[in-house]
């Protein structure tokens, strides 16, 4: 069971850093338009877009939806750990 929990944690960390890098790439002009930016966009944007539709930017420019998305992802990982503990003991 520890192996499954380790895999879940590794996958969460990878996706967390993908979201973080994607957010930081928005601060640098034209960085999202290279290969890595487009790849990250295809992997991260489907998860972030529902949060962007629900949570409007603050003051018209500050987008807090990625922060909420990361918090929700963390709760989902915690729930997944609970399910794995119930199934595998």
Automatic annotation (TrEMBL):
InterPro entries, A to Z: CCB3/YggT (IPR003425)
Name used for this protein in its record: YggT family protein
Annotated source species: Paenibacillus auburnensis
Keyword Membrane recorded: yes
Protein family: Belongs to the YggT family.
UniProt KW keywords: Membrane, Transmembrane, Transmembrane helix
A Pfam family hit: CCB3_YggT
Superkingdom field: Bacteria
Transmembrane segments: 7-28, 67-88
């Amino acid at each position: 069971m520890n192996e499954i929990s380790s895999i879940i944690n590794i996958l969460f960390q990878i996706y967390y850093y993908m979201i973080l890098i994607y957010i930081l790439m928005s601060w640098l002009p034209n960085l999202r338009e290279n290969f890595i930016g487009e790849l990250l966009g295809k992997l991260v944007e489907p998860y972030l877009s529902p949060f962007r539709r629900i949570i409007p930017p603050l003051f018209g420019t500050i987008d807090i939806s990625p922060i909420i998305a990361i918090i929700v992802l963390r709760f989902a990982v915690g729930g997944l750990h609970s399910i794995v503990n119930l199934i595998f003991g």
